[in-house]
Amino acid sequence: DIVLTQSPATLSLSPGERATLSCRASQSISTSLAWYQQKPGQAPRLLIYDTANRATGIPARFSGSGSGTDFTLTITSLEPEDFAVYYCQQRDNWPRTFGQGTKVEIK
Amino acid sequence: EVQLVESGGGLVKPGGSLRLSCEASGFAFNSYSMNWVRQAPGKGLEWVASISSSYTYIFYVDSVRGRFTISRDNSNNSLFLQMNSLRVEDTAVYYCVRGITASSRVEFDYWGQGALVTVSS
């Protein structure tokens, strides 16, 4: 199974700051990586698919990059509604796997 | 508007069974693969099972293979998860999640609100 390792576990930032989240795969997954945002009590929401494509309705401050084994989600300027948990997920192989999550919290 | 509505969750004893349903609307259900993803309390996301639009493929995570069965009824826009021999570690919120279609490879783009399954004696 492909293991996805996210870092850091927690990111403490202030509104307006830049957030950089990392996801590393245990083997190459080309660009078959997605990012999700989850707020307490809510279902996850797809942000980015295939590494760099924003899903419908996702603001331009969210961007993704990477390939192979190293991937990054960047939020250029944090809005109050962006404080949440973020998960990466690979669709290169079965079983589909998720990272353990990065919590972006208000500093 | 795409909607996925799960039902059938509840409390069950270890070794028991439960059947989850997901009613889909707002899209061509019979063209999309469908999935179940779960989340244990306070934990991360775990993919459970996937089924293609016309039963071409079915996949399960190792921990549920042989105990859970995913199925669908395209005539009624419904997805199901039959869960047998339930274990305490199956306790989670189970999400119904839309998959891919022949013309769109975007996976897991719509999620239901989730159904809570609690396995406890």
What is the number of helical segments of chain A per DSSP (H or I, 4+ residues)? 0
Tell me the number of strands of chain A: 11
Radius of gyration of chain A: 13 Å
Distance between the termini of chain B: 40 Å
Low confidence ranges of chain B: none
Oligomer: heterodimer
Strand content of chain A: over 45%
Please state the CA-atom Rg of chain B, rounded to the nearest Å: 14 Å
How are the strands of the biggest sheet of chain B laid out side by side? 2-10-9-4-5-6
- Uncertain segments of chain A of ≥5 residues (pLDDT<50)? none
| H-E order of chain B | EEEEEEEEEE
Classification by helices and strands of chain A:
mainly beta
Return the average pLDDT of chain B rounded to an integer. Answer: 96
Count helical runs of chain B: 0
Q: Assign an overall shape of chain A.
A: globular
Mean pLDDT across the residues of chain A is 97
Q: How much helix is in the residues of chain A?
A: under 10%
Beta-strand proportion of chain B: over 45%
Largest interface here, residues on each chain? Answer: A-B, 23 and 20 residues
Main attributes of the structure:
heterodimer; A: 107 residues; mainly beta; 7-stranded mixed sheet; 4-stranded antiparallel sheet; B: 121 residues; 6-stranded mixed sheet; 10 strands; 0% helix; 46% strand; globular
Can you characterise this structure?
The complex is a heterodimer of chains A (107) and B (121). Chain A has 107 residues and is an all-beta fold. In chain A, 0% of the residues lie in helices and 50% in strands. Chain A has no helices and 11 strands. Chain A has strands spanning 4-7, 10-13, 19-25, 33-38, 45-49, 53-54, 62-67, 70-75, 85-90, 97-98, 102-106. The mean pLDDT of chain A is 97. Chain B is mainly β. The radius of gyration of chain B is 14 Å and the shape is globular. In chain B, the strands form 2 sheets. Chain B has a 6-stranded mixed beta sheet with strand order 2-10-9-4-5-6, with no helix packed on it. Chain B has a 4-stranded antiparallel beta sheet with strand order 1-3-8-7, with no helix packed on it. Chain B has strands spanning 3-7, 10-12, 18-25, 34-39, 45-51, 58-60, 68-73, 78-83, 92-98, 115-119. Chain B starts with a strand and ends with a strand.
